[in-house]
Amino acid sequence: SGWPVKLIEYVTKAEEVIPLKLRHSRSQRSTAPREGRPPLARVNSTTSRDSNVAKPTESISSEDSAMAWLHPTMTNDEARELIDGKVDGFFLVRRFNTPEQFVISVVYRGKPTNHLVHAPTEGPSTVNKKPTG
Fold it and tell me: How far apart are CA 47 and CA 42, in angstroms?
């Protein structure tokens, strides 16, 4: 019956924050810097809010831009570091063990959670071993 939290924003490989649907109030929310790390950049489809915000075309090659949302394989702790402290619905997608497996790391009830996605080329996809659609 879907995710228990609405997915709202994701972080790209270049650590840019992209809203799933551009909304004036939420899409302009600032991203506070994490201790020891620069702030994540927020991007929208037309303009940047300030000069330190990168547009996708400035930091992502054209080859990578189609799948900028897909992170390489990383540990749960590395994924947690990228999304910890964000609002419910903030997420990232990363590779897992095989080309057909991914992990969606999403903030739910204020905490990072991880969900294994199996997306075979043929047959039904699953999330946490439960069929989708």
Answer: 10
